[in-house]
Recover the amino acids of this structure.
């Protein structure tokens, strides 16, 4: 079916431009009203979700007419889903799905982006999203006495993710996570060198086959290990296991939690007590794939009811971003003594993207950093000294943008602050 | 028709390489046309330079803001004003705000609320430009149309910059009529066959006192934002009446008493659309409300400046409604729903949920005139919708229409929609026929002359004004580069 299944949705777009802004009730002034990085940066309507849907509808009708500009539009989108939330406040139609399908169609037609091709080639070869990564995937855990979940029975599998495993600057997140879980007495393990890429970012880049290949391998390993619960510290990993695996009927009964949810639970259960003061003013950035795109998948199959209304039998449940993971990370931060928590204007389901998603950090790093700088400016405007996130990809792009801009803002993953507090 | 390379270069030298594009891939994003190029000017000087180049090369141009609607011939230069998105000034003392075309109403309103001010939000929604001329939910207190445009900066079709009203003789924006050139009839023309040619690059909009909070206390997640509490001294209610005559009696009484911040002649279908989060919920709610109402009705927001003012307004409202036999819709007295619709009508200006969500498209007949007269016409237009509803061509809204008073008076807006699927050509054709027939009826039965009515008949009946307008346009646009038609939404 591909793009064809979204014909009706694409034709529903009335070019109202709601997709460019945060939901109207949440607009607090002239600043920070925009929500889509792509249209904000490139300005032509074609870079907005409405523009993309209208292009999709036209090309579905008249055939794909590839130009360099079209591919520029297609690949300069983080697929962050903010457009869909703003549209779906008022409209019943799919927004992100047809945009994603359009990219998949480009890849099928071999209209790929060379930087993304390189990433996918590496994924096929080495099973990771990090070309040029050296050393073993589980090397960060040396000496930490962490169980090997492929050999020992554990209650929780900590899926570390590619970036945290291989990036020397981010391995501290894995170590902090392990320390927190050990402190709370959780019977957990990692897959170490046997861990594989979740495949989620391959899906965002437009490579569903490569994603499915990874997903199947991961689920086979999990099944073999007898693991019932997976905890991830990466928002992409969380969305892959929780949403995409479920969408493609691979997840089964596996329980998937993000580390922020798990820490929140451990604090509530009294197994983890943040006692040390962490004196700082901090604001929280909702990673797209933990927040609005982390909303559980809803299985649905139906047909449009012929007639005047765009309704389906059975009624179609739209994922509008309301059920993402928003409160657990906030509750964890609020539980840290000394931490003064502030909110930005664009939060939760209408959060501004960090810029790293959809392969943009690889295909157009300048645009990714531009997007990150917008967020950094917003964080600074709250008076915060630190920007806290819950995904290594966010931390990476924020730090790169800060390095270039000279901002004094500090960036932390939530596990780093919890580690300081326990 | 592609631009010649040297012509393209001339435009590019004005706006920069990043801000011009003639790639066919981007065109469907705008409209189903192949434009010569899309250009993104960043300021008035660039607009002027682009317009002069259009004259030099005899290229037709059209400007757009957020791009919600408009008429766009093929092969034109499309001027997307997106980069012109600054609030130039909010003058609290003289109560006006100066904005560029791509400031949306939601942005300006949020800034104004912080200052205890508000402005006329047009019915197209707060997602549209704040410069838009038209009508909206708060017309009862904020008026509508050209009343709210003060001084305007206008790039004429030939590329001259004209500053109207006070701006023509000073750097002040407080008045559209002077001291300086008052060319209101030209600058705000929405009479058929079109709107003002050229480009509005800045406009001052009139501001009004806002008795509500500096920010609504919104809780929850999209699509169900609720108010954590109803703001102090505010209330929203829907009243239905035993007859149109009784409804009109109450409407005019409330206008004379000047107690309503908003009086919107919603029908049950529009109330249902606004308080629900999806089509299925909407349909069920409509069926429920349809049973609850006793007849036609309206939605009211009152906003007091103090507890005493609020108590007075509430008492007057209830007395006038009671005298007309009106009944409050109990469903909407639920504070959650009351808060939802209050915020919808003030912060969103309703619109998308009630127009596009059900079917994906709608055609409308909007009219400005004597409310009691236009209501009589609308009843007939509503009856004429029913066969289309029965055939399943348009969304069932009970054949309803809607409207509201402007400036607390007899004058007002009346409008009627047909909502349908854009994928259904039969429905589209039937709706267009209905539209033509009802516009013709309005003219023939002397209710009003619609802007969408038969121009060849309306013009001669009204002193051939359309010919005069065409002469004015010809004088303003001798090269014919700025076609009429379409609104700046």
């Amino acid at each position: 079916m591909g793009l064809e299944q979204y014909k009706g949705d694409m034709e529903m777009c009335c070019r109202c431009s709601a997709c460019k802004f945060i939901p109207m009730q949440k607009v607090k002034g002239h600043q920070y009203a925009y929500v889509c990085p792509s249209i904000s940066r490139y300005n032509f309507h074609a870079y907005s979700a409405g523009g993309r849907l209208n292009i999709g509808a036209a090309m579905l009708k008249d055939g794909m007419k590839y130009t360099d500009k079209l591919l520029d539009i297609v690949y300069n989108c983080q697929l962050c889903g903010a457009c869909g939330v703003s549209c779906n406040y008022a409209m019943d139609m799919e927004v992100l799905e047809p945009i994603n399908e359009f990219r998949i169609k480009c890849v099928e037609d071999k209209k790929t982006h060379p930087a993304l091709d390189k990433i996918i080639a590496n994924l096929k070869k080495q099973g990771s999203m990090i070309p040029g990564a050296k050393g073993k995937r589980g090397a960060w855990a040396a000496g930490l006495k962490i169980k090997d979940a492929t050999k020992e029975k554990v209650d929780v599998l900590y899926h570390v993710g590619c970036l945290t495993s291989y990036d020397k600057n981010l391995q501290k997140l894995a170590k902090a996570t392990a320390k927190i879980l050990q402190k709370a007495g959780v019977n957990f393990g990692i897959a170490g060198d046997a861990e594989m890429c979740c495949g989620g970012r391959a899906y965002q880049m437009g490579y569903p086959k490569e994603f499915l290949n990874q997903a199947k391998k991961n689920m086979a390993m999990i099944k073999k290990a007898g693991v019932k619960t997976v905890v991830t510290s990466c928002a992409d990993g969380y969305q892959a296991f929780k949403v995409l695996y479920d969408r493609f009927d691979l997840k089964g009964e596996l329980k998937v939690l993000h580390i922020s949810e798990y820490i929140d639970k451990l604090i509530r259960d009294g197994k983890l007590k943040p006692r040390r003061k962490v004196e700082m003013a901090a604001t929280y950035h909702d990673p797209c794939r933990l927040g609005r795109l982390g909303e559980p998948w809803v299985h649905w199959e139906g047909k449009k009811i012929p007639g005047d209304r765009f309704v389906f039998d059975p009624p179609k449940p739209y994922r509008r971003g309301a059920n993402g993971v928003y409160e657990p990370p906030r509750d964890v931060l609020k539980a840290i003594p000394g931490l003064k928590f502030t909110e930005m204007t664009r939060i939760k389901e209408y959060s501004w993207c960090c810029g790293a998603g959809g392969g943009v950090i690889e295909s157009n790093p300048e645009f990714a950093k531009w997007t990150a700088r917008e967020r950094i400016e917003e964080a600074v405007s709250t008076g915060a000294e630190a920007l806290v996130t819950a995904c290594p990809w966010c931390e990476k792009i924020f730090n790169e943008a800060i390095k270039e801009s000279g901002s004094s803002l500090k960036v932390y993953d939530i596990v780093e602050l919890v580690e300081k507090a326990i | 028709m592609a631009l010649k390379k040297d012509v393209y270069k001339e435009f590019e030298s004005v706006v920069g390489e990043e801000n011009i594009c003639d790639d066919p891939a981007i065109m469907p994003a705008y409209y189903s046309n192949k434009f010569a190029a899309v250009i993104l000017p960043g300021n008035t000087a660039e607009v002027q330079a682009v317009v002069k180049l259009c004259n030099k090369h005899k290229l037709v141009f059209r400007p757009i803001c957020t791009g919600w609607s408009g008429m766009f011939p093929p092969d034109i230069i499309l001027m997307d004003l997106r980069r012109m998105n600054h609030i130039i000034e909010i003058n609290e003392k003289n109560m006006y705000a100066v904005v560029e075309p791509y400031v949306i109403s939601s942005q300006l309103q949020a800034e104004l609320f912080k200052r205890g001010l508000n402005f006329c939000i047009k019915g197209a929604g707060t997602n549209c430009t704040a410069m838009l001329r038209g009508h909206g939910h708060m017309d009862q207190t904020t008026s509508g149309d050209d009343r709210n445009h003060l001084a305007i900066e206008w790039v004429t079709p030939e590329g001259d910059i004209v500053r109207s009203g006070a701006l023509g003789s000073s750097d002040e924006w407080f008045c559209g009529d002077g001291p300086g050139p008052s060319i209101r009839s030209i600058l705000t023309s929405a009479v058929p066959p079109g709107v003002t040619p050229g480009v509005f690059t800045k406009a001052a909009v009139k501001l009004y006192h806002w008795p509500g909070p500096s920010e609504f206390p919104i809780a929850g997640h999209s699509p169900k934002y609720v108010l954590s509490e109803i703001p102090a001294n505010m209330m929203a209610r829907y009243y239905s009446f035993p007859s149109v005559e009784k409804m009109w009696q109450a409407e005019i009484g409330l206008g004379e008493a000047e107690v309503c911040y908003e009086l919107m002649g919603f029908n049950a279908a529009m109330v249902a659309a606004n308080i629900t989060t999806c089509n299925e919920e909407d349909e069920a709610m409509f069926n429920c409300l349809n049973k609850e109402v006793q007849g036609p009705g309206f939605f009211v927001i009152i906003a007091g400046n103090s507890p005493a003012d609020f108590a007075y307004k509430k008492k007057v409202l209830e007395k006038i409604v009671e005298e007309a036999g009106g009944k409050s819709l109990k469903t909407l007295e639920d504070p959650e729903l009351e808060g939802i619709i209050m915020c919808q009508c003030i912060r969103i200006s309703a619109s998308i949920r009630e127009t596009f969500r059900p079917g994906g498209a709608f055609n409308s007949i909007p009219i400005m005139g004597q409310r009691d007269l236009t209501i009589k016409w609308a009843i007939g237009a509503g009856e004429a919708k029913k066969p289309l509803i029965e055939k399943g061509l348009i969304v069932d809204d009970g054949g309803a229409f809607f409207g509201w008073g402007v400036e607390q008076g007899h004058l007002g807006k009346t409008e009627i929609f047909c909502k349908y699927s854009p994928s259904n050509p039969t429905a589209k054709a039937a709706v267009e026929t209905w539209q033509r027939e009802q516009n013709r009826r309005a003219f023939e039965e002397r209710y009003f002359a619609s802007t969408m009515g038969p121009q060849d008949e309306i013009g001669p009946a009204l002193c051939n004004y359309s010919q005069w307008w065409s002469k004015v346009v010809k004088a303003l646009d001798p090269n014919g580069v700025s076609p009429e038609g379409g609104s700046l939404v």
